[in-house]
Amino acid sequence: MDRFVLDCLRHIDPFATGDEIEEYGMINDNDILFVFKNGNRIIFDTLTNRHRLLYPKGHKLTDKENKREFAIRLRALMKRACVDQETLATRLGTHQVVISRYVNGDFTPDYVRLGEIAKILNCPVDDFYYKEY
Asked: What span, in angstroms and rounded, lies between the C-alpha atoms of 107 and 109?
């Protein structure tokens, strides 16, 4: 395990040695997937130094969980594109309150609006969907 990956792991657990990792790998330019020997799977965002535990394999997401996952992805993609809520709202021709509701996980955009957001953030629409790794 190289030093960069070990430093990322230590953001998740300051006392980690790497022995508890079954496997790890980059899943895109910014995210590392860590699979632990205990079965936990964690994605670490190298841009924000934040991590999150993934749902167990085969878990069917509820509507609330889908909104939460969308909000997490939207915030990360906005940060990566250096686009704030006001800018995104202006480019979409909507109010910042609408974007705030997306970012907070209150609701998700329809598929047409999602395509517009993806175009502005220069990413594929698939980047907004929860993926099982």
From this structure: 7
pLDDT at res. 132? 79
| CA–CA gap between residue 46 and residue 86 (Å, rounded) | 25
Stated as kind and residue range, the H or E segment containing 78 is helix 63-80
Q: Which residues in the chain belong to E strands, given as ranges?
A: 21-26, 31-36, 41-45, 50-53
Tell me the β-bridge partners of 50: 45
- The Cα–Cα gap between 47 and 69 comes to 18
Global model pTM greater than 0.70: yes
CA quadruple 80, 85, 87, 92: dihedral positive or negative?
Answer: positive
Separation CA 72–CA 17 (nearest Å):
28
Using an 8 Å Cβ cutoff, are 130 and 66 in contact? yes
Mean of the per-residue pLDDT values for the chain? 93
Q: Find the angle CA(84)-CA(46)-CA(109) to the nearest 5 degrees.
A: 40
Structure tokens that stand for 120 in this block: 């502005």
Helix axes 111-121, 85-92, angle to 10 degrees: 120
